[in-house]
Design a protein that fits this description.
By secondary structure, this protein is of the alpha/beta class. 42% of the residues lie in helices and 16% in strands. The chain binds fructose -6-phosphate. One of its GO terms (cellular component) is cytoplasm.
């Protein structure tokens, strides 16, 4: 049942501290500051890594490829429906990672089968034990989020992020202590967001907006895409996520005083500074700005609303900040009386190409 929550989606958002702890259990060696993924003991990565996925899982894949690139490993994320091994060079030295909550998505399965036929090693990152992806791939990494009933992926996205972070440490090698520290603190930080979020008030203020835009850079770029997808699918309203730097190459023309812009600004480095530059551009055009921030930078100065998150490592900040966007989408949909757990036209598992 819904354990007292109004919707499964809400329950699953609030379950995240627990599901994330479950994902990390036994995988973090606290003494050595190392990640251990026992099920991948015989995974040897010799060459480039390709991710294939759809929808929310594709956003996790984009994040996963950024994590590997940061470790000097050539990596790329593909929409599974756009992946065709006869067009995209793939061969025996490649690892192809299918990111799929259900393990049954037809487009992702086809991409994995093509990659396997081309001689690539394959890995399923999935929530469902013995799913098609888990059975057919050479390796499987389980995200252990528990069953997700709401059609909108929430806790499974967070667990994909955490599992892919662990995977990047294992594949990338090197010193993982900072990442391990960040990972271990994610469940508590997500709990803090759930306890203190003002997303409901932000949703009430902007429930009548014409459209919602989300901007972020680097690890927060996939989070901007995910924030928009969640908003679209459960509120039926127009929402778009952009790489913050792309705004002035076209989308800025859409920005008005009726289109709130959610800016993901964590940390106080170069990436935050550049995104704040984009925040100033939208503010100058009269758009309301909602900053999702840990307060490290001065973005609040340019924001109409702040959704506060605890300070985290840059990698962990993407998981923590995303929870605020899940809550905003949930509350806007709730106020609009939408069918939150079963949005129109959508299915939990898409088994046709
Ligand atoms: C959005 C959503 C979908 C799925 C996509 C892939 O909330 O749930 O975009 O992420 O259909 O599904 P899986 O991960 O099962 O392959």
């Amino acid at each position: 049942g819904k354990s007292g929550y109004d919707h499964y989606m809400q329950k699953e958002i609030y379950e995240q501290p627990t599901s994330l702890r479950q994902c990390l259990r036994g995988r973090v060696d606290e003494l050595e500051g190392e990640i251990v993924l026992e099920e991948l003991a015989d995974l040897a990565v010799e060459g480039p890594v390709q991710f294939v996925a759809c929808g929310t899982s594709y956003h996790a894949a984009l994040y996963g490829s950024a994590l590997l690139q940061e470790r000097g490993i050539p990596a790329q994320a593909f929409l599974a429906s756009e992946y065709a091994s006869e067009r995209i060079p793939v061969g025996e030295d490649h690892l192809v990672v299918g990111v799929t909550q259900s393990g049954e998505t037809a487009d992702t399965m086809r991409a994995l089968r093509e990659a396997s036929a081309a001689g690539a090693e394959t890995l399923a990152v999935t929530n469902v034990v013995a799913s098609s992806a888990a059975r057919e791939c050479d390796h499987a990494l389980y995200i252990r989020a528990g069953p997700e009933i709401g059609v909108a992926a929430t806790k499974t996205f967070a667990s994909q992020q955490v599992a892919l972070t662990a995977l990047a440490c294992v594949i990338g090698g090197g010193d993982s202590r900072e990442v391990v520290r960040g990972l271990r603190s994610v469940p508590d930080k997500v709990q803090t967001v759930l306890d203190e979020s003002t997303a409901r008030e932000v949703a009430a203020e902007f429930v009548d907006a014409d459209a919602y835009f989300f901007i972020g850079r680097h690890y927060q770029y996939p989070v901007a895409l995910e924030g928009a997808l969640k908003m679209k699918e459960i509120t039926y309203k127009h929402a778009e996520g952009f790489a913050a730097g792309e705004l002035k190459h076209g989308p800025l023309a859409l920005v008005t005083e009726r289109t709130p812009v959610f800016a993901l600004v964590t940390g106080d480095g170069e990436i935050a500074r550049k995104t704040i530059g984009n925040v100033k551009e939208v503010e100058a055009r009269g758009a309301p700005v909602v900053a999702v921030t840990d307060g490290q930078s001065d973005v609040e100065q340019y924001a109409d609303h702040v959704l506060r998150v605890p300070t985290s490592t840059p990698v962990a900040a993407a998981t923590v900040a995303n929870v605020q966007l899940q809550l905003v989408a949930y509350w806007v949909a709730n106020m609009l009386g939408r069918s939150i757990d079963k949005p129109r036209n959508l299915a939990k598992s898409v088994t046709v190409e």
